[in-house]
Design brief:
The complex is a heterodimer of chains A (320) and B (275). Chain A has 320 residues and is α/β, with parallel strands linked by helices. In chain A, β9 and β10 form a beta hairpin. Chain B has 275 residues and is an alpha/beta fold. Chain B has 2 domains: 169 residues, 3-Layer(aba) Sandwich (Rossmann fold), CATH 3.40.50.300; 92 residues, STAS domain (Transcription Regulator spoIIAA). The longest helix of chain B is centred in the middle third of the chain and has 20 residues. Classes of the chains: A alpha/beta (320), B alpha/beta (275). At the A-B interface, α7, α8 and α9 of A face α11 of B.
């Protein structure tokens, strides 16, 4: 049986914690965690170093709360979904009736790469709904940009407050609708210069060779190889499912390689394309998912001119 | 002349796609002359009567003497491939084995052949069987002192039909992005080139025809020459592993393959990254 505010809820109970002080954060998080332990529920913390330490100190010794190792959990949204789904399935298999998690995204991903994390925050309403999960995503309102907080409100059904209340955000938008919206993509500054290479309707092999040519040794060989995997898949999708011609452009910056693939089509119909593997393998869904796993940023852009995928290898965090 | 002529693949099995018969003859002259110089018995196998075949080797130095001594043989396709329309792979390898042993017994260092096989692969059914035979021959050629250039007329067969055969040769001038061929040591077969969405169906067919089998539940594949492989082709390898109950072990120098296998969760495909 589920406990607390999520009692009686089926599936994922997704909340935001928009805090403006450490006291605010602790007032929400500590009771949430302690009640989880008391109910015998797997109770996990996936916070960054600073806030994890803050919470650890506020909890009694040997509280029973598990702290997830930081590391690369939030390196890429598709990988985070995969890792969390595996973790959640494991707890359910062991008989958990509810799993409680408080987590936060690293500050670095709230900038240039926020668009794919906004898609993540929306998609997990669906992707984690197979599990009796109650999670809180913490955002510091003092340092988080207003546009990001606006997306947070639209992707979280509720906000958890220090007074113990759980209030609807009011503007929550179902993921299928939210993800289908046209989203502006910030121009990467390297795109202001002329592309180092531009190809129309290349074969996947020609597109891969273009990536190899754009590599000036600024990236580890592994990252260049992974970018070739991604470019090969996205070009294949554009040629097979897009509305031609497929145009690929490459920019080579000091710490990254940026590739855009454009066609005149409308892009994938599946709102979760890229974040979840398309199970039936239809319409290139697996290729887009692999690309989301192989690049440090994937931005999807739809407008009247067509569909563009932008892939970044190396450092995607340009200043915004 | 080939796109993949690295030492690891240069063991004497070449697929030559040609548009110009004169070009083929010029290749044959140079190729067979090198064989004669190396003390090998050489042969031209092509459709036609012996005098027609001899005329195609007009420029071969010492042709007539070589013919008299038995160092040069001219055989019609019907003589060498007696099975008629569809080749019998095992039986045909035995024919080449006998011819190779005969050459060695007669004091030659080996046997070298140009085989114009176009007429043997005109239909899809012929190609299917002939491709299986090509791979059996590839293993034989890798082991024994036999060299073969398999020549196919592009004007008659077209690129896609030739690709079905060319991809089973370690060396070719045909436009194929990947090659599946015999390996040495504990690895059973080797993969070279690139496997991607442009050729994954061709690869599935090649894998089915080569049909490599594992030892003790492990099928070792030398993939050090494989510059790229995508998820579609890894799934073909997984399917092959499942069909035969042997894990496919890819030996590669590229770490991206391992990451893709992990991502796709393919327990039957294992990756050993070396170098």
């Amino acid at each position: 049986m589920r406990t607390g505010a999520a009692a009686g809820h089926v599936g994922y109970y997704h909340e935001a914690v928009c805090y403006d002080s450490e006291e605010h954060l602790l007032a929400v998080v500590v009771p949430f965690l302690l009640a989880g332990v008391e109910a015998g529920e797997p109770t996990l913390v996936g916070l960054g170093e600073h806030n994890a330490e803050l919470v650890r100190r506020a909890l009694p010794a040997d509280s029973g709360v598990a702290f997830l190792p930081g590391g690369d959990l939030y390196a890429r949204p598709a990988a985070a979904i995969r890792a969390y789904r595996t973790l959640l399935a494991g707890h359910v298999a062991e008989g958990a009736e509810q799993i409680r998690i408080v987590g936060e995204l690293p500050a670095a991903v709230l900038g240039a790469t926020w668009d794919w994390w906004a898609r993540y925050e929306s998609a997990i309403n669906h992707a984690y709904d197979d599990f009796p999960l109650w999670s809180m995503c913490a955002y510091d309102t003092r340092t988080t940009a207003p546009q990001v907080l606006a997306d947070v409100a639209r992707t979280h059904p509720r906000t958890a407050r220090p007074d113990g209340s759980h209030v609807p955000t009011g503007c929550y938008t179902e993921p299928a609708s939210y993800l289908a919206e046209r989203r502006p993509v910030r121009l990467d500054p390297v795109q202001r210069a002329a592309p180092v290479l531009e190809l129309t309707d290349p074969t996947p092999a020609e597109a891969r060779a273009a990536v190899r040519a754009a590599d000036r040794g600024q990236l580890p060989a592994d990252e260049v190889e992974d970018l070739m995997v991604a470019v090969s898949e996205i070009v294949t999708n554009a040629l097979r499912h897009g509305d031609g011609p497929a145009r690929i452009r490459l920019w080579s910056g000091p710490d990254r390689i940026v590739v855009t693939v454009h066609d005149r089509g409308a892009g994938p119909k599946d709102p979760y394309a890229g974040l979840l593997p398309a199970g039936n393998g239809a319409s290139g869904g697996l290729g887009l998912w692999i690309s989301h796993q192989s690049c440090n940023h994937v931005a999807l852009h739809q407008d009247d001119g067509g569909f563009t995928v932008r892939l970044t290898a190396g450092n995607p965090h340009f200043p915004v | 002349m080939t796109s993949g002529s690295t030492p690891a693949t240069a063991y004497g099995h070449v697929c030559l796609a040609y548009d110009d018969p004169a070009g083929l003859d010029a290749w044959a002259v140079g190729y067979l002359a090198a064989g004669l110089a190396a003390g090998e018995r050489v042969a031209l196998i092509a459709p036609g009567a012996p005098d027609e075949l001899a005329r195609r080797l007009d420029r071969l130095p010492g042709r007539d003497a070589a013919l008299r001594q038995g160092a040069l043989r001219l055989l019609s396709v019907a003589q060498m491939y007696r099975s008629g329309g569809v080749v019998d792979p095992q039986a045909q390898v035995r024919v080449y084995d006998a011819a190779t042993e005969e050459a060695l017994a007669a004091g030659y260092t080996g046997l070298r052949v140009v085989a114009e096989a176009t007429t043997l692969v005109r239909t899809a059914a012929q190609r299917d069987t002939f491709a299986r035979y090509e791979h059996l021959m590839d293993h034989y050629i890798r082991r024994r002192p036999l060299s073969v250039t398999c020549a196919y007329d592009r004007r008659e067969l077209g690129g896609p039909a030739i690709a079905e055969l060319a991809c089973l040769h370690p060396e070719t001038n045909a436009e194929v992005l990947f090659r599946l061929h015999a390996a040495t040591g504990e690895t059973v077969v080797a993969l070279g080139g690139e496997l991607d969405p442009s050729n994954d169906r061709l690869f599935a067919a090649a894998l089915d025809r080569a049909d490599p089998r594992g030892v003790d539940g492990r099928l070792l594949v030398d993939a050090t020459g494989l510059r790229f492989v995508d998820h579609r082709n890894l799934l073909h390898l997984r399917d092959h592993a499942r069909r035969h109950g042997a894990d496919v072990v890819l030996r590669t120098s590229r770490s991206a393959v391992g990451r893709l296998v992990e991502l796709l969760d393919l327990p039957e495909v294992r990756v050993e990254v070396g170098r």
